């Protein structure tokens, strides 16, 4: 009886240790924004885990990782960077170069140079938009290039079956191409419509679909000050814009104030963070539909 008990204990312990070993051997990928997380998850499937460590209430562009965060990131098998000056913390942290992949390295010739504008966002401190526009994934064709870079990195490091990754990449590419075609169709009659955005995030969206967007410097989802409303009114009068694009849901009072100026509000999430519902694909497509409808309404 005692021998049977010992055998059972050792068998159970062995199974436990084997499970722990498998968990420890499971590949881990870390990303600097949600779109890269989405692409990596689609490409890895169930072969590994993908983590995007930035808290929901922090702008991923200006996140400052803690010591624990840095340790977790350094332990990853693959660290996916956006490039284009996104996530400035990566330049201040020591990371294993062999595991770093700049997903936009192959498309740097398509970067959009931006003006130098210095301002602050809450606790993020003062910063400047000088350099290049960062939100590449708002152009699905650039998102495809980033997905291809991720697929190459996963395959090169043997984090998943090369055949499986190739199949998943074709599926993801097809989804992104379909999304691009939908947007091309939706915006086909809005190229001459003047739009205003609360923040300079939409440069690649505007270039891809021929949109005319003037950018403000408002905090995401925050109620505008009287001075900001006056600036908006001046720009709207000068450009003829009747639609304001918000990154996040603004207070109801802000929407009412804009209606008083004869402007309609449209929420177009920049998707640096995971949306509260849905995925990168369906959130983007809904935003495209909403903006297209509002633009067409303003054009009539």
> Which range best describes the helical content: under 10%, 10-25%, 25-40%, 40-55%, 55-70% or over 70%?
40-55%
> Number of helical segments?
9
CATH superfamily of the largest domain: Nitrogenase molybdenum iron protein domain
Distance between the termini: 87 Å
Q: What would CATH call the class of the largest domain?
A: Alpha Beta
CATH topology of the largest domain: Rossmann fold
The profile of the biggest β sheet is: 4 strands, parallel
Q: Approximately what portion of the residues adopt beta-strand conformation?
A: 5-15%
Tell me the series of helices and strands, N- to C-terminal.
Answer: HEHEHEEEEEEHHEHEHEHEH
In CATH, the architecture of the largest domain is 3-Layer(aba) Sandwich
Q: How many beta-strand runs?
A: 12
Backbone shape = globular
Biggest sheet strand line-up? 2-1-3-4
Rounded radius of gyration (Å): 23 Å
Q: Give the rounded overall mean pLDDT.
A: 90
Protein name: High-affinity zinc uptake system protein ZnuA
Pfam family, one: ZnuA
Keywords: Coiled coil, Ion transport, Signal, Transport, Zinc, Zinc transport
InterPro entries: Bact_metal-bind_prot9, ZnuA-like
Written description of the protein model:
GO terms for molecular function: metal ion binding. Belongs to the bacterial solute-binding protein 9 family. Keywords: Coiled coil, Ion transport, Signal, Transport, Zinc, Zinc transport. It comes from Ruegeria profundi. This protein is of the alpha/beta class and 300 residues long. It has two domains: 2-181, 3-Layer(aba) Sandwich (Rossmann fold); 187-299, Nitrogenase molybdenum iron protein domain (Rossmann fold, 3-Layer(aba) Sandwich), CATH 3.40.50. 45% of the residues lie in helices and 13% in strands. It has a four-stranded parallel beta sheet, covered by helices on one side. It starts with a helix and ends with a helix. Mean pLDDT is 90; it is low at 8-23 and 121-125.
């Amino acid at each position: 009886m005692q021998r049977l008990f010992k055998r059972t204990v050792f068998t159970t312990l062995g199974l436990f240790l084997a499970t722990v070993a498998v968990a420890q051997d499971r590949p881990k990928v870390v990303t600097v924004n949600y779109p890269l997380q989405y692409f990596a998850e689609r490409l890895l499937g169930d072969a590994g885990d993908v983590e995007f460590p930035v808290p929901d209430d922090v702008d991923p562009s200006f996140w400052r990782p803690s010591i624990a965060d840095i340790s977790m990131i350094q332990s990853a098998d693959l660290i996916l960077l956006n490039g284009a000056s996104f996530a400035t913390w990566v330049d201040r942290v020591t990371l294993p170069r062999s595991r770093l992949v700049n997903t936009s390295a192959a498309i740097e010739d398509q970067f959009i140079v931006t003006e130098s504008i210095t301002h602050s966002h809450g606790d993020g401190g003062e910063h400047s938009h000088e350099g290049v526009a960062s939100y590449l994934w708002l152009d699905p064709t650039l998102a495809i290039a980033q997905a291809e870079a991720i697929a190459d990195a996963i395959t090169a490091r043997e984090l998943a079956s090369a055949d499986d990754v190739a199949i998943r990449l074709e599926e993801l590419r097809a989804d992104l191409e379909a999304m691009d075609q939908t947007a091309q169709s939706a915006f086909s009659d809005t190229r001459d419509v003047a739009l205003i955005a609360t923040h300079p995030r939409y440069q690649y969206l505007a270039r891809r679909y021929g949109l005319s967007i003037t950018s403000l410097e408002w905090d995401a989802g925050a109620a505008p000050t009287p001075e900001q409303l006056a600036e908006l009114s001046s720009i709207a009068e000068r450009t003829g814009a009747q639609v304001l694009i918000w990154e996040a849901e603004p207070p109801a009072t802000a929407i009412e104030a804009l209606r008083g100026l004869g402007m309609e509000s449209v929420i177009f999430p920049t998707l640096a963070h995971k949306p509260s519902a849905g995925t990168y694909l369906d959130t983007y497509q809904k935003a495209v539909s909403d903006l297209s409808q509002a633009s067409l309404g303003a054009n009539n």
